[in-house]
Amino acid sequence: MDVLVVRDAQAVVAGAAELFLEATAGATAARGKALVALTGGTSAPPLFEELRGALRRRIPWDKLHFFFTDDRAVPPSHPESNYGLAQRELFSQVPVLDTQVHRLHGEANDLAEEAQRYASVIREIAGEPPRFDLVLLGLGPDGHICSLFAGRESSADRGDTDLVRHVPAPEHVEPHLDRLTLTPFPIVTARSVALQVSSGKKAAVLEQTLRGKEDLVACPAQWLRHAVGRVVVFASREAASKLEGQS
Questions:
Q1: What domains appear along the chain, each with residue ranges and CATH number?
Q2: Which of 239, 247, 238, 232 is nearest to 197 (CA)?
């Protein structure tokens, strides 16, 4: 795991965007396509802005397939939809076809069935075992990644066979909406993972993620320690203030 401590939030975004370019270019050169799993949350809009800006011309958009690490149980027009955010802030402004974007149907009546459907889509495009070329993540204040929330026993289940699961609405996380999420398996087997941490308010949970005693229920982000591919943590100086050896 590489921990890159950078000046500020903008440098975090710039670093993640460069890794996006590197990972997608490498994958398309090697395999003809690149499979990217996008996150939502506060880390997504600045990254989308960076990708549609100066880097846009260097990204092989026509060879990319986009998935989502998680989404809320809402229709795509809802303001809490991760897909809706990506559609507004990225897909509508870059040369990507609808067939390249694979969204979670948060509006589905049966979310467990939708989880199975999405897992089948991943396998159809990524093969077996499925492997993403890049997974983009933010870090939740409770140590969650995707919708693998702290305090839930299911967050410690690697999920090798199901890939995607329905998560009932978390009591301590706003908004109180059910979720669909990738299991840890697609994360730990990805070729590259980028974790963006900009806020100084997350210094303690970042320290727990990287240096704390392992407890995957208390801090699901510790799954990144089990990754078989490259993991790069882009952390601002404030966010990294509690890490050993960092000033």
A1: 2-236 (3.40.50.1360)
A2: 239
